[in-house]
Amino acid sequence: MSDNMMMSLLACPLSPDLAGTVWLYRLPDKIESEWQRLRGQYRALTHTDGNLPYTGLLTVLRASGNTSASLWPSSKAHPPRILAMSKRLSAPHLRFAVCLWEQAMLGVKAHAMTLDHTSTLADLFASTEPDQVRVWDHIQVGPRAVDADGWVFDAVNFNVTAQLAAQKLIVDGLKIPLRADSENNLVVWDNDFLWSNTWHATSSPRSDKAPASSTSDLPEWKTRLYRAAMRIDVAMKSVHALPVPLLTLRPHVSRLSNTVSSARTGWFAPRSPNAPLLNVALGGTGKNTHLEHTSRLALDAWVRLKDEPVFPRAKDTKEFLPISALGISGSPGNFRVLVPFSTSYPVGRSVGIHTVAALADHLAEATGQDLLRARQVVKNLGIGTRQTDNGRDTVLLDDEALEEIMRAAGCSRLRILALYQHQDTRTRMQRLLAYHFNRPDLADGMPEDKVVALGCRTEVLFHHAPDLLAHGDHAQRPALVAALPGLQANDTGVLALVETEFDAKRWSKQRRDAEYGVEGAVDPYPLDAKPKVSRLLAQHGVLAQFITKPKKKRPSPATEAEQPASPLDALGQELKNDHPGHNAIGDMLRAAGLVHPRLTRTITHRGGLQHPLAHVGLHLREQRGAYYKKRTDRPALMWILTAFVPIAGHWKTLAYVPPGPYGAGGWFDYALAQVISRRHPIPEGSRSESVLPRRIDHALFQLREWIGTTEYVLYVSGDSTRSVWPLMSNKNADLPADEIGQVNGRPALPGATLDPAHRPKAIIRTTSSTNPSIPVPAVFHTVDDLGNEAAGPRTSNALFQIDDASTTYFMSRLPLQATGGTPSAKLGRKNSRWTAANGAEQAENWHCLTSTEIAVITHPAGEESLPYAVTTARLCTHALAWMGRTQHPLPIHAAIQMDKNHPDYRRTIDSDSENDG
């Protein structure tokens, strides 16, 4: 009798009863002219061409009415036709809310606002008689897709959140109350169930048992109590090819601040314990911290319509957030805010696997639905993965066919320019290079400014470049780079291993201080030498890989380690803990485009794709920068195609550089494509541009010149492409493409408009659970042939298939940090943070399982989708530069790394983020 492994995800099907009802206000036609009139006034007042800020109205309605609230359609071109709310509000209440919003929108001061304001728009809203309808009747369920208008999602989320909050969460024998907020999240609000810790407790596991007098001489910051709450996102979602709407939960650790100063996000609890918490937004810094306009308006409406005080304040002030309210230390009250930015905190991130399983039980119990399940189809995905010996890739670097591997990458040898600023970094580089390239005899000494032959068809040149690498003014850098020795070499790929200094926390604080106008503060990022040096070296044909100083002195190898068999082994044992250094060398080889033939075994192993194919990856990212903050930058659009092409037993890696103002673009060897890309800024652009799909199709058309008659599979990141092609979106899975590969006049999929000879054989979309639309693994069960269930393992790295969606798979992933041998790696597997043994455990980051959804969008008729999914999952275990599992398969991962190494790369939106793990 065999057992089948089943995985339950933190999601369940939505039923008609769970969806509940909603009140629909079908607004009269007269609203169009009035909406446009007010929009004209608003644009003249604000000197913009935007739509009316209706989110402020919805916030007012949610706050004052304890209801969901949505306007549809949410279009700049058209006024709303429907107002949907979970509760029916009286006509006066609705009119007063619209009046307050309209006055605030038109710039009326808060003290001058009145409920008697004359408003035609408010009269139109108040005169509309609503209809109570079943939400389920407005969800379109097809053979392979689910779709609904935006207001449906908001109504479902509100109704379900209320049901989940009606029952207490049971964890470790504790019954924990949950409270909904106005954004349809669940929050642990009860003070008795907040997680708390002190810095003193984190340093001594038994400090909680020490006598009180032992802490009397400690500084205040060590004994100050820090708190955190569990927040659970609740959302209606869909899965590719599954004709059932889903409810998903996503837990977070929300760290609470002891001060309102500089906070960005908070909650306010109304007097009624059954009313949702009001989400509030804040702005400003220090003593100038204030409520954002929309939150101020919502609280104003709350006070006027509910006759309920908000913050305790002096009688002579009209401010909702006076200076006296900035300090909120002590026992948490009705107003709580999150830590505004990433910082050290004595409560770690993530809730742990055990708590996720408890949430799964709560979801099933409160909804009466079975969890979404998938069955295991492949257990072992780590075939032909990169293995190292004390950090060294011996399989690649000691291969007898290394010259052919390099030839496939576009060169016959490698030269490394080792550019350093400090002597200790030179010593570290020297030892790392001597180890990785098999010259242990050179570990203790290499000459300066001379080419030295290493092993593995590689040579190195060390050069002291303090002026070039020092942060500061960039004026002299072009001349300093041009004067570097060893920039040119025939038939040799030139790489640079470059020292840089970077302290993420310190630089982040300096940037914030500069933005907030703190006296003497200077933003360090414009003075950073790294991006400028990277670009200048690329202009000379050199790819730079940067290496930072280790954060702390690395321990010596254990004395009981086995005796080294050779000088190389001895050097490896000394360097085995320098993980950042090994990663830098590995990433440098990845940038060079070196791919070992073991990739063939990864792809063609039993169950995978057996025929020789090229594997192409598409990564697309829109970089907004300061666009949403200051409206000064136009978005930049980075899109990259990579291709892994089988050639005579080896793999040639290519990348596509889009044509632009700096050159014609085209397909190039991976290393050369990076050089070309780094030379120039990321071009301006947007995902919404209609020409983008055509440009990508043109790149796929040109690929045929490089791969000949070989067919190819296209892997696409689902995080940013669903809006570009109609059939990449779950809701459009039932739409047919026409004879020219289009849906509603738009290219249906990448390559769909090309002739059949140039189209991909299959298109596979991968989406990581870092995207909130993807549910996370919760519980594993074994099921025998008789249907009997038994508890399974707590973790899994296997591939699972959804039974009711034959082309949709989930790859469960245990984070690499949770696979170590330290006790902290396994925290949260058997208990929750509520029963953590001590402060040291509470301060650690606990780990949950993550997942990658693998959706086989298209594949040849008559073939199964499973081999394509298996190969995709195995390619997620085949990163070129490290041993861990990646969120996306190798072709996409290589494109993402190429993007991240660009000098202009930065976070999609450069803004403060709440510390919410």
List low-confidence stretches.
206-213, 554-559, 908-917
Mean pLDDT: 89
The major sheet is characterized as: 13 strands, mixed
Question: Measured on Cα atoms, how large is the radius of gyration?
Answer: 30 Å
Measure the end-to-end span.
43 Å
Order of strands, widest sheet:
29-28-27-26-30-33-38-37-36-20-1-34-35
**β-sheet strand percentage:** 15-25%
Plain-language structure description:
Strand 22 (452-453) and strand 23 (458-464) form a beta hairpin. The strands form 8 sheets. A 13-stranded mixed sheet has the order 29-28-27-26-30-33-38-37-36-20-1-34-35. Strands 2, 11, 12, 13, 14 and 15 form a 6-stranded antiparallel sheet that branches. It has a 5-stranded mixed sheet with strand order 22-23-21-24-25, sandwiched between helices. The chain starts with a strand and ends in a 17-residue tail after the last helix. The protein has 917 residues and is α+β, with helices and mostly antiparallel strands. Helix 17 (529-539) crosses helix 22.
Summary, kept brief:
The chain is of the alpha+beta class and 917 residues long. Helices cover 28% and strands 22% of the residues. Helix 4 (91-105) runs antiparallel to helix 9 (293-306) and helix 17 (529-539) packs across helix 22 (670-678).
